[in-house]
């Protein structure tokens, strides 16, 4: 639908992963004007991350199951009227009224572009995906120790490996995918170390039986791992990484049911890299900053609470994909389409196509049930803190050790991540607690009666670091701390949907604290 | 069986070019991020923390800020996001980069 530059878009979709693309395609095919924003230059999100065109990969499908399905989805996006705004890092969303939103973004590969932009829209679909959960252990800051999904991402986009002999460790189904791609790409993977077991899935036979594609996927990874002689070690964890300038070996220790290391069971495995991660955490800060309700997932993460049509608790804001709980790309695509149809129905004031909506909802519910079963099977046990030594760094940015955090909890009475942060600076660095948040919250909870309860959602005022100049140029209403809906004044007439503001340089960043 | 990621993906990249890391020449492929080019050359550390520890790319997707590098004189660039360009000079960044900025 034709839209003049001064008019808001009908829908701004944040995130061009499977959920965001499916949402943008569905909404635009239903006649809405759509802006699709992503921090990356490319579409695909985490799963369909792929080499830049100049790397001329003739077999991108070798790095992804389901590449043809993605290529079709991308084809529909390209054929649609949706505007794909590349390299747009969204740092906050403000609400003028229930059907007037402003999306604030920084441009450039790493958000260093000259001009911050604002995109106005009548509705917003949050499809920002997930990030990895990390549990620290001695030596995890050594070069060569990398995030499991990070190794996967660097392989898929840059065609590189962090080493030649790579141990894969942590917990969750992503590990099998990572191990099988690293091995297929030429790395020797001496072991995949999983803290839980895979038997947990068997407790949910119905979820397994109704999701046969998941079994096929697991079988495919399994056969690659078998072919490359990768040893799966369950109920075990890497409890220490050794080396001086880079990792040279890891100690793998057996865990009990509660993830407590079993003394005397440690053994060394030589390696020159370790890819480690403990599941995925929904990225919800843009939504929680606007007051959206959340729910607790079976593995202790916080996801957005959504209704049957992907609506958040805040009118005008929808969400799809891993923002609503981690569940894989097929679920993300289904939710994206459902959200796109629902937004179109609401803005056009007519019912969504009933048959299609019912079908999508059925598929979504089936896949969510499976995702919950997986999450429960891989939920971190409380005993993991047993492998921390007092000098293990917990917060990588501010170099705060487990000893400091424990002192804040037992000595100074901190009972939550926020208090620990104020006392120790854990979580105050550049990453705003994305890397250490889960660990700090667990350590803080150790001081409470609930003991084992992992983190609640931490509110981050800014989704990405923002130059001070950009913040200073914001009208009062767009300051994230003042983002209460009632405090928001409609913005003075804005000449264009994307108006460059100020000439703020990129390098005086707001301290994310 | 593939021996390298490029072989697996059937990549036939455009001609490679050179960048430097602390003065040493590193070959990059067009389309790689700076972090990918450095990993490709076996370099896994390009920042030191305030306590002096070596660091570099960890999350690989722009979220951890451990990969901050000084690129052509500008500090605090996330090497995992910034594409490599011919002639780029990457230098080891010391500390977390807040200090000189006063933020
Ligand atoms: C590092 C990593 C690696 C993964 N690898 C695999 C894998 O190999 N196999 C597998 O099955 N699953 C993998 N997953 C899980 C995968 O995320 C999902 O299955 C699927 O991609 C979810 O789709 P989505 O659309 O919900 O989110 P995503 O695919 O994550 O897409 C979200 C998009 O939002 C963008 N975004 C986020 N925040 C902002 C912001 N503030 N401003 C602008 N854009 C933003 C991101 O750049 C991204 O493109 C991985 C996850 C992570 C975190
Ligand atoms: S590797 Fe984490 S931000 Fe670059």
Low-confidence stretches of chain A: 449-457, 476-513
| Extended strand count of chain A | 21
CATH top level assignment of chain B: Alpha Beta
CATH architecture of chain B: Roll
Q: What is the CATH T-level topology of the largest domain in chain A?
A: FAD/NAD(P)-binding domain
What percent of the residues of chain A sit in helical stretches (DSSP H or I)? Answer: 25-40%
Count, helices of chain A? 13
As a percent range, the share of strand residues of chain A is 15-25%
Tell me the fraction of residues in β-strands of chain B, as a range. 25-35%
CATH level 1 name of the largest domain in chain A: Alpha Beta
Q: Can you summarize the main beta sheet of chain A?
A: 7 strands, mixed
Low-confidence stretches of chain B: 99-103
Spell out the CATH superfamily of the largest domain in chain A.
FAD/NAD(P)-binding domain
- Reported by name, the CATH topology of chain B is Ubiquitin-like (UB roll)
Notes on the protein architecture:
The complex is a heterodimer of chains A (513) and B (103). Chain A has 13 helices and 21 strands. By secondary structure, chain A is of the alpha/beta class. In chain A, strands 1, 2, 3, 4, 5, 6 and 19 form a 7-stranded mixed sheet that branches. A 5-stranded parallel sheet of chain A has the order 8-15-9-10-11. In chain A, strand 17 and strand 18 form a beta hairpin. In chain A, helix 10 crosses helix 11. The C terminus of chain A is likely disordered. Chain B is mainly beta and 103 residues long. Chain B has a single domain, classed as Ubiquitin-like (UB roll). In chain B, strands 2-1-7-5-6 form a 5-stranded mixed sheet, covered by helices on one side. A 3-stranded mixed sheet of chain B has the order 4-3-8, with no helix packed on it. The radius of gyration of chain B is 14 Å and the shape is globular. Classes of the chains: A alpha/beta (513), B mainly beta (103). The structure holds flavin-adenine dinucleotide and FE2/S2 (inorganic) cluster. FE2/S2 (inorganic) cluster binds next to loops of chain B. Chain A: It comes from Streptomyces triculaminicus.
